[in-house]
Amino acid sequence: MSVREILLFPDRRLRMKAREVSEYSSQLAELAEDLLETMYAAPGIGLAATQLGIMKRIFVMDCSSEEEAGDPRVLVNPRIVWASEDKEKRDEGCLSLPGQFAEVTRPASVVMAYRDLQGESFEERLEGLWARCAQHELDHLDGKLFIHRISSVKRQIISRKAKKAVREASLNNSNPQKKKDGE
Ligand code: NI
What is the Å distance from ligand 1's center to 135 Cα? Predict the structure, then answer.
């Protein structure tokens, strides 16, 4: 297992669409372990393979609270099969946009179909932060960031700030400060 480097906006690979997973190999299991280790180290509550520059449809998440035991989840080839009409507005962040946050409106609850690392199929209803995080990560697999779900004015402001932060970080030769709760 290893902690890998998370791509930062505006890296163009973050805009690429990932391909379906067809081989449930030990390599895929290793990727899932690296995703989890990288996510926990960040720290964050979700991470998609595209954020490591790997164009495979797999993401991990763990939205359990600090008081709860960890609940690491791996979703392969995830898709939304049902979304509630009920929408919710909530602040989102992203490990690829450290320090940037914006309110994003999404369905409050979704049913996601996915496979596990052995290729077995599941369907699961997700609520609250889990539903929010899963939708955010699924967007990553389609080359979409949370800033593509807000107004263009807000997107430009965040995009400018994020680019500046990346520039300053590379000048200081250190990583921009990462906030907890990043996805
Ligand atoms: Ni993200």
Answer: 10
